[in-house]
Amino acid sequence: MNVIAHLSDVHIDDRRSMDRTRAVMEHLDALPCDLDAVLVTGDIADHALPAEYEAARKLLTSRHPTLICPGNHDERAAFRRHLLGEEPSVAPIDQVLRAGGFVIALCDTSVPGEDYGRMEETTLAWLEDVLAGTSAPVLVGFHHPPVTLGIPYVDGIKQYGEERLAGIAARSPHLVAFLAGHAHTAAATTFAGRPLLVAPGVVSTTRLPWETADENDLVHLDHAPSLAFHVLHDDHRLTTHYRPVTMPGMPATPGPAGR
User: Fold this and answer.
1) Is 118 helix (H, G, I), strand (E, B) or coil?
2) What DSSP letter does each residue of 194-255 carry, written as one string?
3) Binning pLDDT at 50, 70 and 90, where does residue 215 land?
4) What whole-number distance in Å separates Cα of residue 224 and Cα of residue 259?
5) Is the pLDDT confidence value at 256 over 70?
6) Is 256 part of a structural domain of the chain?
7) Measured distance CA(9)–CA(43) in Å, rounded
8) In what order do the strands lie in the sheet with 238-244?
9) Which is it for the CA torsion 171, 3, 54, 8, positive or negative?
């Protein structure tokens, strides 16, 4: 069994966002067991500023193997230089982790200057090569979900060109699941016959359309930062658990009733 922590949308820009991100990462580092991976699926900096990435680089350091991809709030060259410590480039930031009998392929779906997502041809070719190079179970992650989630303003900036990704999945029976962020809400659905698991937002939580009549009141700012734990079982089945992280000043999450 492998356990992968999955967080998203930290939007580093002020003390509040940094405190919430720090709480989540400290929670992970304090766990009594080692995780197989920590994934952070995009929107790392809120304004793509060097100082935001430099703060994120410190905050997202972990004792667990960590993989981070950009989202629509990120800028590739600054992301590479100030977060990854690489030479700046506007090429897609695609990364792979091979560990413990499974593979994670983290794809860049950001489109420079746009809020919607789309995989470039080079990313699609890279993903096909990763899948062709292993028979181990593969989890594919990215920022933008390639399906609608029933949240209009999120659905308008989803990942487009998704039929190309679906074609790759159809040729890859060892592709177990897709992991995404962007929506700022924990969600579970399917895409291309696979589970699609969306991590909740660390910085805020999206209000669902039936939770508000005010079209300008789109987010909960008082909800605890949350994350997902994905459990990859030996039979390649995936189970996902969603967890809030209590911060100072927030009421503790109530536990189960006593038996």
Assistant:
1) strand
2) EEEEEPPBSS-EEPPGGG-S-TT--EESSSPPEEEEEEE-TTS-EEEEEEE---TTSPPPP-
3) confident
4) 27
5) no
6) no
7) 5
8) 66-69, 37-41, 2-7, 226-232, 238-244
9) positive
Q: Residue 31 CB: number of other CB atoms within 10 A?
A: 13
Instruction: Give the number of domains in the chain.
Output: 1
User: Measured between alpha carbons, how far is 112 from 148 in angstroms, rounded to an integer?
Assistant: 21
C-beta neighbour count of 210 within 10 angstroms:
7
Side chain identity at residue 155, one-letter code: D
Domain membership flag for residue 257: no
93 located within any domain: yes
Phi and psi torsions of 205, nearest 5°:
-125, 130
Query: Could you tell me if residue 155 is inside a domain?
Result: yes
- Which structural domain range is residue 75 located in? 2-244
139 to each of 6, 11, 22, 60, how far by Cα in Å?
12, 24, 26, 21
| CATH code, domain carrying 116 | 3.60.21.10
Q: Note the pLDDT of residue 258.
A: 35
E strands within 21-149?
A: 37-41, 66-69, 95-99, 102-106, 117-118, 138-141
CA 248: distance to chain centroid?
A: 25
Q: Which amino acid is at 243?
A: R
Amino acid at 59: L
For 3, phi then psi, to 5°, come to -125, 125
Q: What is the reported pLDDT for 250?
A: 63
pTM of the model: 0.92
Residues with Cβ < 8 Å from 65, sequence gap 6 or more?
A: 35, 36, 37, 38, 97, 99
